[in-house]
Amino acid sequence: MKDANAALLSNFEVFQLLTDLKQQRKDSGKHKQSSGQQNLNTIMYETLKYISKTPCRFQSPEIVRDFLIAMKGHKLTKAEKLQLLNHRPMTAVEIQLMVEESEERLTEEQIESLLQTVSSVLPGNPAEELQKQATTAAEEDDDPE
Amino acid sequence: MFVLVEMMDTVRIPPWQFEMKLNDSIAEELNKKLANKVVYNVGLCICLYDITKLEDSYIFPGDGASHTKVHFRYVVFHPFLDEILIGEIKGCSQDGVHVSLGFFDDIVIPPESLQQPAKFDEAEQVWVWEYETEEGAHDLYMDTGEEIRFRIVDESFVDTSPTGPSSTEASTSGATEEVQKKEAPYTLVGSISEPGLGLLSWWTNS
């Protein structure tokens, strides 16, 4: 054990890693199906299942970068920004949970502007996503096979 | 929720795997050893992130396998104190509400950390939040399968490595082994006693 806390990972980074790993293992064929790999399979499956239900499934590296740049002005700790990225809060109550001593550090307008930044930079508004999926499905139907 | 942990270990590659590329066989061995396992005081290991350094491989007399010292980074589940997480209620008991994340099950919210006042409904075996408004009291049930938002307040690691045979009392029989509790190596204690915490359905506006 060298460093038990080298870096914090966002859900998105773990999501990307596991999806890539899953693809790699599928491509390399079935020769790694020995019983030793069962643990890896189980944990990958369960973790991917959990993370796929969180907002990170709509994120991309550019979005994460834009989010961190947008967050610079708000003076939040790394852990707070990470929680906002992972959870995509939509109400003031959620912001107060994730930001320590938010009553002292943020005014109501600042909380409002934080919520605005989060909703505009991070995708994941359920209504928007449904609409996007509907338009892509319509486009596919138009294309003649 | 997840952290990157730098580790160092000596990996043994048996001779029949020499045809594989060294990096691949090392990655396979490390995942075999650590994936889905709890490391004491570190957390639940998920999968290998990358290999940072490979030292020379040695073969020792008497063992045909090669031994390589590897420096690598592993993705570990280890939420920090006060982190907010969303999980699913697995069940309720006298000890509190049991929550699971799918890949990690040992999370418990003790009765004192529930939204107060709370009572345990013996008939349905479920915890209930007695929410008071001007109109009267609403009983909010914490049913199995519901999504719940909670804060991590404590964690505990238990060393579950096997101990040697302990001195036994006179009445030893096979039955005493079943009395040994199966302790989870890593447990998290949560709390929902703040506004915004608890079942997601309690706090959604629509």
TrEMBL record, chain B:
Domain spans labelled RNA polymerase III subunit Rpc25: 83-203
Entry annotated with the keyword Cytoplasm: no
GO biological process terms on file: defense response to virus; innate immune response; transcription initiation at RNA polymerase III promoter
Main location: nucleus
Keywords: Antiviral defense, DNA-directed RNA polymerase, Immunity, Innate immunity, Nucleus, Transcription
Biological role stated in the UniProt entry: DNA-dependent RNA polymerase which catalyzes the transcription of DNA into RNA using the four ribonucleoside triphosphates as substrates. DNA-dependent RNA polymerase catalyzes the transcription of DNA into RNA using the four ribonucleoside triphosphates as substrates. Specific peripheric component of RNA polymerase III (Pol III) which synthesizes small non-coding RNAs including 5S rRNA, snRNAs, tRNAs and miRNAs from at least 500 distinct genomic loci. With CRCP/RPC9 forms a mobile stalk that protrudes from Pol III core and functions primarily in transcription initiation. Pol III plays a key role in sensing and limiting infection by intracellular bacteria and DNA viruses.
Protein name: DNA-directed RNA polymerase subunit
Lineage: Eukaryota, Metazoa, Chordata, Craniata, Vertebrata
